[in-house]
What does this fold into?
Amino acid sequence: MAFPHPDGDYTITAMYSVPDDAWYLELDIVAGQRRLVTAVVPDEDPAREPTVCFDSRGPHVDVPFEVMRWFMDQVEEEIRTSRAWMRLRPELVEIIYQLRQEHMGAIDDDTFRHVLAEVRATVSEADLPAVLEAAFGRNPDGTTMDHLQAPQPADSQGDKP
It folds into this structure.
């Protein structure tokens, strides 16, 4: 997925590497079709930190501060969204990490019911939503986080006019 800078001279390409369990964001200069900077944002292993690598091949390129700020803002957003669960309490991070490793981030409905019982025995009800969202993208009722609830009628009117 590519995101062009407003000036049109630069673009960010975002891709996920399954073998690396990480998001890659690349800042490219459009005219030379050259990668300038790569940010690597691991999203599975809390022990791995995000990194930024500069491409030293080819001639020196001056990158405007505004463009670099734009790129780093995108990297910061990716870190915030991909690694938010890693900022929870250490014991929750460990539980989430183990669940993600065991179930590879996906779980079917039947297995979810069994795992939910195990997780409930391990974490408090207050922590349960955060753990389930980070591990499986699910709510405690089993629905997915992107599941849209049907709109409820105002004032319990139901189908009445």
Summary: The chain has four helices and five strands. Residues 98 and 135 are 9 Å apart (CA to CA).
